[in-house]
Amino acid sequence: MAAGESFDVYRLPEEHEAIREAVREVCTAKVAPYAAEADETGEFPKASYDALRAADFHAPHIPEEYGGAGADALATAIVIEEVARACASSSLIPAVNKLGTMPLLLSGSEDLKRRYLSPVAAGEAMFSYCLSEPEAGSDAASMTTRAVRDGDHWVLNGVKRWITNAGVSEFYTVFAVTDPTARSRGISAFVVEKSDAGVSFGAPEKKLGIKGSPTREVYLDNVRIPADRIIGAEGTGFATAMRTLDHTRVTIAAQAVGIAQGALDYAKGYVAERRQFGKAVAEFQGVQFMLADMGMKLEAARQLTYAAAGKSERGDADLTYFGAAAKCFASDAAMEITTDAVQLLGGYGYTRDYPVERMMRDAKITQIYEGTNQVQRIVMARQLLSGVV
């Protein structure tokens, strides 16, 4: 390459930067103003949903053939990152829509895709993901929810716990045991509708963070659904669930990056304006070192997340490792960065008058859901030892 020749191999495409600018504009004007209220009231931020839906950022991953925007995995990650920068609860709108619909995209019949993806793309419905149970969290294969075939129907019974946006979503991907003798190979996936007889919801969980995104139990009491609502072949549900998480752990990494970016942005502005001992707090070397570490960890997390998003889009063989690594690293970084942001604001950071304490509380869940970071380290180690990476 000749001297002075442009070298654009390693930077975001212009269209992805344009998406970031568009999402940030929407979020600054119509999402961020409701973030504190959603946290205080614990109510779903409908105004934020309406704004994201109007801009087609509520489920950007859905392919164009089903009425969606057709955003690739990297663009979807950027959308989630930018929404999370303004409001972590609201970022679960595009994130959980992807989580709930990914099993259909990976394994669903064409009829199921057209029937259920199109309403989500149109903003007429949201989609949730029902894997965890009261006694089956990290060990999802030990679930007890049952689905029994009855002629042209399946009948589902069981309880799902920690279901994000439960009660708000119209559609649910539900994993249930269809062959109790086969453990993980006896699990199948189904689409359940909120309106199906026998579907009900528990009270909202009282959570540390992401309070504007309701988390409830989902009760399935003799829920009878048509046989054609099975996702993929019988017995393939667990494999579909794990493949889904390979892709959607990237979205949790993006959410963590966004939360951390919001906290760093606010902390930078605060220390530049706040004066102590006759000068701006930002002029103290100890503070500068904290900011440097925060920025460094954030950028490392972002680059790993974007690399994982690229692997998600291509379906690379090492996606399992990179999805786990991105989620684990970014969420750990977000917890450190938001905690440091609170520290930089001192006593003010500990009050609800300033947003960084909310960001710190919101960041914590990114280390827990879609597989705790301890589980992510197990996943990564297995991939390394198997020679995939």
From TrEMBL:
Belongs to the acyl-CoA dehydrogenase family. This is Probable acyl-CoA dehydrogenase fadE25. Its cofactor is FAD. The keyword Plastid does not apply. Residues 235-385 form the Acyl-CoA dehydrogenase/oxidase C-terminal domain. It catalyses: a 2,3-saturated acyl-CoA + A = a 2,3-dehydroacyl-CoA + AH2. Residues 14-124 form the Acyl-CoA dehydrogenase/oxidase N-terminal domain. InterPro entries: Acyl-CoA_DH_CS, Acyl-CoA_Oxase/DH_mid-dom, Acyl-CoA_Oxase/DH_mid-dom_sf, AcylCo_DH-like_C, AcylCo_DH/oxidase_C, AcylCoA_DH/ox_N, AcylCoA_DH/ox_N_sf, AcylCoA_DH/oxidase_NM_dom_sf. It comes from Micromonospora acroterricola. Residues 129-223 form the Acyl-CoA oxidase/dehydrogenase middle domain. The keyword Nucleotide-binding does not apply. Keywords: FAD, Flavoprotein, Oxidoreductase. GO terms for molecular function: acyl-CoA dehydrogenase activity; flavin adenine dinucleotide binding.
